[in-house]
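Sync notes, pocket subgroup
Present: LS, DG
LS reminded everyone that the earlier model was apo-only. Rerun requested with NAP included. Inputs:
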Amino acid sequence: MTKLNFNSEVVELAELGNGVVQITMKDEANLNTLSTGIREGLSKCFGAVAQNKSYKVVILTGNGNYFCAGAGISYLRKRIRGEAGVIDLSGSMLDCEIPIISAMQGHSLGGGFLMGLYADFLVLSQESIYTINFMEYGFTPVGATSLILREKFGAALAQEMMYTGKRYRGQELAKRGIPFPVVPKQDVLNHAQRLAQEIAKKPRLSIVSLKELLTSEIRKKIPEVMEKELETHYVTFNQPEVASRIKKVFDETMMPNTQGTVEQGIQENKSNSQPLQLKISSYGILKNLYWAPLERRIPKPTEVEVQLKAVALNFREILNALGLFNEENLRRFGISKAEELTFGCEGAATVVAVGSEVSQWQVGDEVIFRGWDLFSSFITCSADKLLAQPSNLSMIESATIPVSFFTAYYGLHDLAKIQPGDRVLIHAASGGAGQAAVKLAQYFGAEVFATTSQKKMSFVREQGVKHIMNSRTTEFADEVMEITQGRGVDIIFNSVTHGDHIQKNIDILAQGGRYLEIGKLNIWSHEEVSQRRPDVKYFPFDFSEEIERDDKLNPRIWESLLPLFESGVLQPLP
Ligand SMILES: NC(=O)c1ccc[n+]([C@@H]2O[C@H](COP(=O)([O-])OP(=O)(O)OC[C@H]3O[C@@H](n4cnc5c(N)ncnc54)[C@H](OP(=O)(O)O)[C@@H]3O)[C@@H](O)[C@H]2O)c1
C-alpha cells in the first residue's frame, strides 16, 4: 500500500495496487465528524483521484468505531445562529468518474451516512448503527437524501428511515432486505477491497463508461431534488422547536464528537452538577442513607460510561440497608463496612461515552442493565453488561425488567422447563419477582396458583389469576391439594422462607415436581429436600450469581424476552 501525502491530517489517500485507491477518514478522536478538516481532506483526495487516469475504483472508509458521525453540535449551533450554510458533500463524490465503494465499517449518522450513500456500492457492518436522523431534530433532509436513499434501499424503508430518524443496526437493515452486503465489522474493509480488486480487473474505459451509463439518469435528477429539499429544509430548520430539540438531543446524550474527546465531555459535564452515589453510614436505619459525591471514570477500551435515568428499588436494598446480607456481601464482594456498600441492582441508562474497542454501543443508546451500584449518577462498566432497551418502553418501565423478569424466566424456563398445562404455584405474587413469574407462567400456558396478602388479592386477580391464597398463613397447602384433587402442583416459585412455608411447599409438589427457591435466608439444603421428597427437583438459585458464572446468560435470555416486550406480549411491572 502506498500512502500519498495530500497535507491532510485527518484524511488519507493510499494506492492499493491494480488501480484501486482507498480514502480513509482517520479523525477517530472526533468520530470522523464532518469538520472543515475532514471536508477539505475529502475534497483534496477526490480531486487527486479525478486527476489520475490510472485509478479504476475508490474505497471510502473510516478508522475506528465511526465511519462518520455527521455534522456535529458545533456546526448545528452555528446553523441555528445563522452562521453556517448547509454542508454539501455531493460534489466531489457524485462527480467521480470511477466507481466508489463505501466501506462503512462503523456508525454512520445523518450527513455522514448520506455521504456513504453517494457511493456506487456500500458494504455495511452488522454491529454498526446507520441513521438518517435529520427528523430527530425536527428538520427535513438535504443533499438529495430523498432520492438517493430511495434509490439505494427502496421506497418503503427509505421513507421509514427519513420520517422516524431511527437508528438501525446493520444486521436489522440486512433483515429488511437491503441489496448490499452487511458483514461483521472486522470484515467490512476486506470485503470492499475484494470487490474493488474484482472490478479493477476490467479495462478502465469500460469501467468509466459503465458508471456513466448506470448513473446518468439519477445524476440528472439530483440538482432539482437538492433544490426542492433545500427550500423545505430552510422552512423546517427555522422552527423554534428545532433549536430546542437539537439542544435536548445533545444535552441528553452528551455527544462527545464535537466537544473533543470523551474525557473533555466528562469534564464539561462535571462542572454542571456533582455526580452522586447512594451510600449508608451505618446499618439498621434507612435514615442513615445519604448521597455521597461520586468520581466519574473514563471508560477503558472495552468499557462504556452510562448516565442512569431510572433505577428500580428492590427488596434486596432493604435487606442490605438493614445489614441482613452482611455475610454474603463479605463473601462475594469483600464488603466489611457499611460505608463500602452501594445500592441499586437494576436500571435504565443512556450511554454517554464508549471505549475505543466498543462497537456494539454508541453515545446516546438507551440501555438496561444489572449491577450493585445503580443508585449512582454515572457508572463505567464493561460494554457486555448492557442490553438494548425495548424501543416501545420508557426508561422507568424498562428499569423494572432486569431483576424480576430475568430471574423468573431463568427459573421457570431454564431450570423448571415449564410446559403448557403445568400447574405453577407462585408465592408473593404481588411482589416484583412474583408478578414477573405470573406473567411468564401465563405466557408459557401454565395454570397459575398464587399467594399474596389479603389486601393485594384483587390486584393479583386483575392479572388473570384464578386460584389466589393468603401468603401470611400456610393454609395454601390444603387449598392447593383440594383444588388439584390431591395431585399437587408441578412447579413452585418461592421466596417466602419463614415458619413452615418450605415444608408445606415440598409436601404439595406433584410427583417429580420442580421447586424453585429464590429466597436467600433460612432456605433448605439439597439433602433436606431430598430426604423429605427424593423425587423433587430442587433449584435454589441466585440469578446474580448465575450471570457471574455465565456471561452469555443475560444476552441469551434477553434475546427471548425483548421481542415479547416490544410486541406487547409482556408488559413491564406497574
Ligand atoms: N434469587 C434471586 O435471584 C432473586 C431475584 C429477585 C428477588 N429475590 C428475592 O425474592 C424476594 C422477593 O423479591 P422482590 O424483588 O419480588 O420483592 P418485592 O417486590 O419487595 O416483593 C416482596 C414480596 O414479599 C411479600 N411479603 C412480604 N412479607 C411477607 C410475609 N411475611 N409473608 C409472605 N409474603 C411476604 C410481599 O407480599 P404482599 O405484597 O402480599 O405483602 C411482596 O409481594 C426477596 O427475598 C428477594 O431477595 C431473589
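DG: The chain is about 40% helix and 20% strand.
LS: The two ends are 59 Å apart (CA to CA).
Action: DG to write up.
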